[in-house]
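Handout for the seminar on molecular recognition.
Each group receives one record of this type.
Step one: identify the two inputs.
Step two: read the structure output and locate the region that could contact manganese (II) ion.
Step three: write two sentences on what you found, then compare them with the reference statements printed after the record.
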Amino acid sequence: MSEKSKAELLKEKLMINGKSALNTADDETIEKAFGFCEDYKRFLDEAKTEREANEVAIALAVANGFEPFISGKTYKAGDRVYFNNRGKAVAFAVIGEKDVEKGVNITAAHIDSPRLDLKPNPLYEEIDMALFKTHYYGGIKKYQWTAVPMALHGVFVKADGTVIRVCIGEKEDEPKFVVNDLLPHLAQEQSKRTLSDGIRGEELNLLVGSMPFKDDSASELVKLNILNILYEKYGITEHDFLSAELECVPAAKACDIGFDRSMIGAYGQDDRVCAYPALRAIIDVKIPEKTAVAVLADKEEIGSDGNTGLNSAFLKYVIGDIAKMQGKDVTVALRASRCLSADVNAALDPTFQDVMERRNAARINRGVCVTKYTGARGKSGTSDASAEYVAEIRNMLDKAGIAWQTGELGRVDLGGGGTVAMYIANLGVDVVDLGVPVLSMHAPFETTSKFDVYMCYRAMYEFCK
Ligand code: MN
Ligand code: MN
């Protein structure tokens, strides 16, 4: 082999290497990444809603020594506790050697994903078919949600408080549901609509039955038959829909993508692709120097408002409770704390490259993506992480040999988006976004790279340990 030229050596020293990190990854790392993603795929299938993700995460944590935080009890370094927020959001903590006034290391991901929620009064009959009216949750391209098999997850809560869980359409032999679309032969008018208007909100109606109740003395017999099935299966009546949270999600299972199996396709990877690594990382932490907290939040996809979202006092009170237990002050603790807002970024898509500014776009297989700011237009609606804090994270990643890249969410002035970063930053904490690049984000089936998922886990672990 010939020796490197002067220019080559200088290039190595001064310039960012724009090659896929996967090129230089060793076989052992790739093997570990693939192994980690087998567990991740199982999590995706078991935890399609925030309630399910909350439950599965807590079960895994409890099996690894976590217990519910009890006010008034004293915890020592290495103790593992969790705070369950209404079964929809959860914070896990491993108590550090130093008290919380020295700072807390927080990872924050979300476990809600875009979907179709049922309206409070959803069931109706039209031309001998029974359907559910839905109200979409989060930012979706509505046309993508038609003509794909859907499952129904959630709860009915009866007036006496009894909770009835629903999960139907996930098992092979269970029925599924579907939002039908117009056939192309008769879609001339529809085709003239803009893409965002191609399927309208009030056209997202879920087909749930077509068989009439055997009697000819009443109207709405198909609807009656469905209610009868629901009464027999769940003991509920039409009134119980009023106090229910029922979510229609794609019925498809997580799977490998590509001949080389290098990628994962699944529903709800935004943001389980960061929530799962954050969970695994806090579980793997032993006795950290500083207290580590991993929060899995709800409501991110609709702006983080509400008592299970991160624009609430939930996280502040979690750290407040730990501070109180140590006889320390929560404001001092927050001011000294740092956070990785663990959320996805858009990956550069070979077919749609012009929405990105290529020099600052995240790509799959280049490792975990650090996003200094999100927002829209002139950096509106974001927490712009300080250079000092980004330098700290950069140093941590490089020292641990974790493949990472930076990414901006699309071209300037094209669109934009936000994460929970700004709500945590507003508490006085240093925050930067770090997560996995995703293709087809917010679609019923999203794609990520196994290598990036594993690098996300390694970054979370390195940050908390
Ligand atoms: Mn997200
Ligand atoms: Mn999202």
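Reference statements: The chain has two domains: 17-113+267-464, 115-250. The CA atoms of residues 50 and 81 lie 20 Å apart.
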